[in-house]
Amino acid sequence: MKSSKKLMTTGEFADLCDVKKQTLFHYDDIGLLEPEYKNENGYRYYTIQQAEAYSMIDMLKEIGMSLAEIKDFLQPKNTKKITDLLTEKEKLVDIKIRKMERIQHLIKNQKNKLKRHHS
Fold it and tell me: Under a CB-based contact definition with an 8 Å cutoff, are residues 15 and 24 in contact?
């Protein structure tokens, strides 16, 4: 264990990342986000630097990537596969944005109709 890095318990790290400890246990079990250090009793310890990795995972989940896709994405190899996956996800996000913009436009139109009707 390196003493140069401040270690946090799973609970402390979960609080920092605003996530449940069980999520971190699951991420460790599937090899997505492993703790910096595990002691002989199996207690997990994380570093502040790992919060950035967690944020990346959270953002990738937010855009609709599965945990398996995220795990692949975070591997340092497979540049072509990662680029293709990001291109696909970017297209999906664009579609969602256009759909939300249409909904927003419909809402504005309905509000304007109601204003005109009650004026």
Answer: no
pTM of full prediction above 0.90 = no
**Beta carbons of 24 and 44 less than 8 angstroms apart:** yes
40, two tokens: 């002989």
Cα angle 72, 52, 79 (rounded to 5 degrees) comes to 30
- Please tell me the distance from the alpha carbon of residue 73 to that of residue 53, in angstroms, as a whole number: 12
Instruction: Provide the mean pLDDT of the chain.
Output: 88
**Please, which residues bridge with residue 37 across strands?**
45
Using CA atoms, how far apart are residues 81 and 88, in angstroms rounded to an integer? 11
Alpha carbon separation from 54 to 7, 27, 58, 74 (Å, rounded): 15, 10, 6, 11
